[in-house]
Amino acid sequence: MTRNRVLIVGLTALVLLVGAGGATYYLTLGSDGSEQTSDKRDTRYVFVNVEPLSAPVIIRNRVSHFIYLEVALEVREDADVREIRRQMPRLRDVFLRDLHRRSIVRDDGSGAIDFADLKARLVEQGNKVLGAGVVRDVLIKKAMRAAG
């Protein structure tokens, strides 16, 4: 039995080494075989909070109610966060204009918020103010219906 245990341990070690080698190769080289640039792997992102926003929920061409949104902008760590905060009044203005111009609910008549479209719209508007590619994504931290 000792011989079987040695064989099992040896095969397990071999499988682990091959797996580690494959993982290292895959992480070092892209799927097309070209080397990935380190700036993509090393780029870190931070979130910058935006003061709460309000958006009307428009159903059948009428304002049904309002939704209050708490969002944060995901930006590169090396982006000038101080400049982003300085631009926050302009960002809030373009966000609110967009939210009041077009409904945030799905087109299927369900009345549900279209979060994917909402995030894409806010990313687009944020990059118009801050410059292309500064806002990577938008985190919707909270969406709640206004009382009333």
Brief descriptors of the model:
148 residues, alpha+beta, Tetrahydropterin Synthase, Chain A, three-stranded antiparallel β-sheet
What does this 3D model show about the protein?
This protein has helices at residues 2-28, 38-42, 81-86, 88-101, 115-130, and strands spanning 45-59, 62-76, 135-145. The chain is α+β, with helices and mostly antiparallel strands. The chain has 2 domains: 2-40; 43-145, Tetrahydropterin Synthase, Chain A, CATH 3.30.479. The chain has a 3-stranded antiparallel sheet with strand order 1-2-3. β1 and β2 form a beta hairpin. α4 crosses α5. It is flat, with a radius of gyration of 24 Å.
Can you lay out the helices and strands and say which pair or pack?
Elements: H1 2-28, H2 38-42, E1 45-59, E2 62-76, H3 81-86, H4 88-101, H5 115-130, E3 135-145
Antiparallel strand pairs: 1-2, 2-3
Helix pairs in contact: 4-5
Q: In a nutshell, what does this entry contain?
A:
Helix content is 46%, strand content 28%.
What is the fold-level CATH name, i.e. the topology of the largest domain? Tetrahydropterin Synthase, Chain A
Give the helix proportion (percent range): 40-55%
Give the C-level CATH assignment of the largest domain: Alpha Beta
CATH architecture designation of the largest domain: 2-Layer Sandwich
Please outline the major beta sheet: 3 strands, antiparallel
**Span between termini:** 75 Å
Q: Strand order across the biggest sheet?
A: 1-2-3
Strand content: 25-35%
**Taking Cα atoms only, what radius of gyration do you get, to the nearest Å?**
24 Å
Number of strands: 3
